[in-house]
Amino acid sequence: MGWVAASSGAVLIAQMTDIHVGFAPDEKPEELNLTRFRATLTRLIDGPNRPDMLVLSGDITDHGDAESFAKTAAFLKDCPFPIIPMVGNHDSRAGLLGAFPQVAPAEGGFLHYVVEAPLGLRIICLDTLEDGRHGGAFCDARARWLADRLAEAPDQPTLIFMHHPPVVAGIDWMDPAPVEEWIVRLRGVLEGQAQVLAIHCGHLHRQINARFAGIPLAVTPSVAPLVAMDLNPIDMHRPDDRELITTEPPTYALHRWDGQSLVSHYERVGDWQVLARYNAALQPMIEGMFAERG
């Protein structure tokens, strides 16, 4: 791809996750998740931080159906930056391939691939889908593929995107078991891979920071409604009327790579009041802050 770095000299990688197009599609005038998707995409395109690329890190749709993928592709058809789509547990590989023909299946049909981004950054997108399973998967074939890709460029700064976070976050009904086979297998591949700067995930519908195999790991909140933050154990046999899903605003991440450092920002999308602007009255304050840098 003909990537062009942002004028600031840094690369901005936007991440939107868990859009769930097709959930409650009978809502009028537009399903809620499409409305939230539209607002988030508009912020990326028209806001002050237009990215150089957009990663859709899984659960793009709610049912993996062709119609929902087609709606998503229609929203993105005039996007001024490249789209990097990935599958989540609610998606289907066939549906994603139909909507995003730029993606080519790898051996075994997995939708994992490498993107060479500007300023020497390598992006690896993993496929953690197992049809019929809510949680993640990472089989021997995918482990060999990832190990080979990491071995190709052991000294190149690398950023990994995957849908399922391989950590226990404390949201009991969404978490994996701590020693699931796929998590153990992934850890075995990633341990000692010092070139991996970070792992960015979706799936949990909340912002979470952790470490995995010694690597910083973060979960980007969803575009669809968020999972309620309740860290108490849940009894699957005893409904306790706890909150599960909330209408907290849609959120996206913006990962900034300047060739040396990777920094991630998160912004909720909604209406808010601007309390200060950079005008002549505030110019002395801004000049003073720059002067402090020496």
Describe this structure in words.
With 294 residues, this protein is an alpha/beta fold. Helix content is 22%, strand content 21%. The strands form three sheets. A six-stranded mixed sheet has the order 4-5-6-7-9-8, with no helix packed on it. It has a five-stranded mixed sheet with strand order 3-2-1-12-13, with no helix packed on it. Strands 10-11 form a two-stranded antiparallel ribbon. A hairpin with a 4-residue loop joins strand 12 and strand 13. The longest helix is centred in the N-terminal third of the chain and has 15 residues, at 32-46. Mean pLDDT is 94; it is low at 1-7.
Largest sheet: 6 strands, mixed
Task: Give the uncertain stretches in residue-range form.
Answer: 1-7
- Can you write the helix and strand succession as a string? EHEHEHEEHEHEEEEEEEH
Strand order of the largest sheet: 4-5-6-7-9-8
Termini Cα gap: 39 Å
Number of domains: 1
Tally of individual helices: 6
> Looking at the structure, what is the overall shape?
globular
β-strand number: 13
**Assigned CATH superfamily:** Metallo-dependent phosphatases
What's the CATH topology name?
A: Purple Acid Phosphatase, chain A, domain 2
> Structural class, from helix and strand content?
alpha/beta
What is the name of the CATH class? Answer: Alpha Beta
Helix content: 10-25%
Give the topology:
Blueprint: E1 11-16, H1 32-46, E2 53-57, H2 66-76, E3 83-86, H3 93-99, E4 113-116, E5 122-125, H4 140-152, E6 158-161, H5 181-190, E7 196-201, E8 208-212, E9 215-219, E10 226-227, E11 245-246, E12 251-257, E13 262-268, H6 283-291
Parallel strand pairs: 1-2, 2-3, 5-6, 6-7, 7-9
Antiparallel strand pairs: 1-12, 4-5, 8-9, 10-11, 12-13
